[in-house]
Amino acid sequence: MKQKNPWAWVPTLYFAEGVPYVAVMTISLIMYKRLGLSNTDITLYTSWLYLPWVIKPLWSPFVDMLKSKRWWIVTMQLLIGAALAGVAFTIPGPWWLQGSLCFFWLMAFSSATHDIAADGFYMLGLDQHEQAYFVGIRSTFYRIATIFSSGLLVGLAGALQVLTRNIRYSWSLVFYMMAGLFIALWLYHNWALPKPREDGEKEQKSVQGIIDEFRQTVVTFFQKPQVWVGICFMLFYRMPEGLLAKVSALFLVDATHKGGLGLSDGEYGLVQGTVGVIGLTLGGILGGIAASRDGLKHWLWPMVMAITLPDLVYVYLSYALPESLLVINACVFVEQFGYGFGFSAYMLYLIYYSQGEHKTSHYALCTAFMALSMMIPGLFAGALQEAVGYQSFFLIVVVACSLTYIVTWFLRIDEEFGKKKSEASK
Which of 203, 164, 144, 130 is nearest to 18 (CA)? Predict the structure, then answer.
């Protein structure tokens, strides 16, 4: 059987990976804000939706053992499509909050499972050369999915509100469109995804064998040098961003008399969903290039400053409340560029910590701590903001940046880690 061209499925696979994550983590924020929920409730409910990504290492062995990864991918895409349709169906109804949250939970678990299967399938469906070649392509299309979802779709919801003069029906139509998109992706990937022979070969393991293997993975994870320093770094390095991420989105769209900037959905789509994502992407690319040239240790403190100091732009925005969209775009771009550059240090440290035996499983545990680092502060961020107001909240975020500096101070990193081999050998 002729091998499928990777261009036929890698871009669409990672586009499909990005859309539901953004729907759960970003679009839900704006939708619930427009539907009248308080910031306290929004951040509490949506932060719990991080949980599937926190605990996905618990069921990833079963994804490997049961069925093929191809089967998991197409099945999860169908479930995501059904969950999107469920959100669309419940929004206009009387039980819109309970119903939509229920389907967001289904979407979150399906999306986390899809991530496990897609990343594993990527390694099975491509040889080593193709994996290296397409790593930038997959990241690019994930970013395109982010711009499409938090930029175009949020802007579309705003345009539909003008046309229909009904907020609920506008958001319902947007989610029906997303459901249709995922049904199309499900049909397309049923045809386009290759069928690697390795994907059909299942290593026979008992449930007890999987549990024992997971226990061994956890034990060796906690036996690594600087384990508690590493865990504190994973949990607290992004603590300021965990506080900021959800509240900053709500601040951009909240009414001016409540201390927000009062952006329309279309303006939000441009500012956060497009300009912000571009800044984040460029910062991440530059961070990767810098670390690969001189090593993680060389760039660690510049990256710490990059991920913390730009948080000051929200202090400025909350006090100045500028009406100029250009100024707002510039501030968001600076903050997201800094975050992208500084986040490179975090991701490289996860790889550094995961080195050695069980590195794949250890990296999965590291990503669980990464999701937890966003989930925990998000749970109370909205309540804190409503208690003190946007201005004081953003000052608290800046003060919380001290945690980033403290946990970084205790790290011990090999000077050669991250450098090209040719550089390290000189």
Answer: 144
Report the C-alpha gap between 16 and 412 in whole angstroms.
37
pLDDT at 339 over 80: yes
User: Cα(267)–Cα(17) distance, rounded to whole angstroms?
Assistant: 25
> What pLDDT, on the 0 to 100 scale, is given for residue 200?
65
Between residues 243 and 362, the one the model is more confident about? 243
CB of 226 within 8 A of CB of 408?
no
Q: Measure the CA dihedral 12/13/14/17, to 10°.
A: 120
Please, are residues 185 and 101 in contact by the beta-carbon 8 Å criterion? no
Which is more confident, 424 or 287?
287
The half-sphere exposure of 43 on its side-chain side, counting CA atoms within 13 A, is 26
Q: In this structure, what are the phi and psi dihedrals at residue 185, rounded to the nearest 5 degrees?
A: -65, -40
* Residues contacting 65, CB < 8 A, separation 6+: 202, 203, 205, 210
Q: Hey, what are 255's tokens?
A: 């009414």
For 14, counting Cβ atoms within 10 Å of its Cβ (0-12 exposed, 13-18 middle, 19+ buried), the class is: buried
**What's the count of helices (H) and strands (E) in the chain, helices before strands?**
20, 0
Say whether 126 sits in a helix, a strand or coil. Answer: coil
Residue 425 scores a pLDDT above 50: no
Q: In this predicted structure, what is the pLDDT of residue 1?
A: 40
Of residues 401 and 360, more confidence is placed in 401
- Which whole number is the average pLDDT over 87-102? 95
State the burial class of residue 35 (Cβ atoms within 10 Å of its Cβ: 0-12, 13-18, 19+). middle
Cβ contacts of 199 within 8 Å, gap of 6 or more: 68, 69, 70, 121, 124, 125
Q: At what angle do helices 276-294 and 325-353 cross, to 10 degrees?
A: 40
- Catalogue the E-assigned strands of 11-166: none
Number of neighbouring beta carbons within 10 Å of residue 406: 13
| pLDDT at 358 > cutoff 80 | no
For residue 263, count other CB atoms closer than 10 A to its CB. Answer: 20
DSSP letters, 198-214, are: HHH-PPP--HHHHHHHH
Q: What is the pLDDT of residue 217?
A: 82
User: 295 pLDDT exceeds 90?
Assistant: no
Say how far apart CA 224 and CA 219 lie, in whole Å: 9
Question: What length does the chain have?
Answer: 426
* pTM for the model: 0.85
From residue 178, give the alpha-carbon distance in Å to each of 108, 137, 174, 399: 15, 23, 6, 39
What is the Cα–Cα distance from 327 to 330, expressed in whole angstroms? 5
